[in-house]
């Protein structure tokens, strides 16, 4: 069970979501912090949602 929840709002951030997810995940793993990363898609008009789904599949 995660001890920390990180909530990140996203609007038209398709180019940054994956990098942000990997960067945060790497830092949490390095520091051995049990956490969940929650992206909130705020009605983006680009492929933000697809990139959030991709990050979810690639990063555990």
From TrEMBL:
GO terms for biological process: lipopolysaccharide biosynthetic process. It comes from the Bacteria. Keywords: Cell membrane, Glycosyltransferase, Lipopolysaccharide biosynthesis, Membrane, Transferase, Transmembrane, Transmembrane helix. GO terms for molecular function: glycosyltransferase activity. InterPro entries: Glyco_trans_2-like, Glycosyltransferase_2, Nucleotide-diphossugar_trans. It holds the Pfam family Glycos_transf_2. Residues 5-57 form the Glycosyltransferase 2-like domain. This is Glycosyltransferase.
């Amino acid at each position: 069970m995660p001890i920390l929840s990180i909530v990140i709002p996203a609007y038209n951030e398709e180019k940054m979501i994956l990098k942000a997810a990997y960067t945060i995940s790497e830092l949490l793993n390095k520091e051995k912090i049990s956490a969940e990363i929650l992206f909130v898609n705020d009605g983006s008009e680009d492929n933000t949602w697809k990139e959030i789904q991709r990050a979810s599949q690639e990063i555990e």
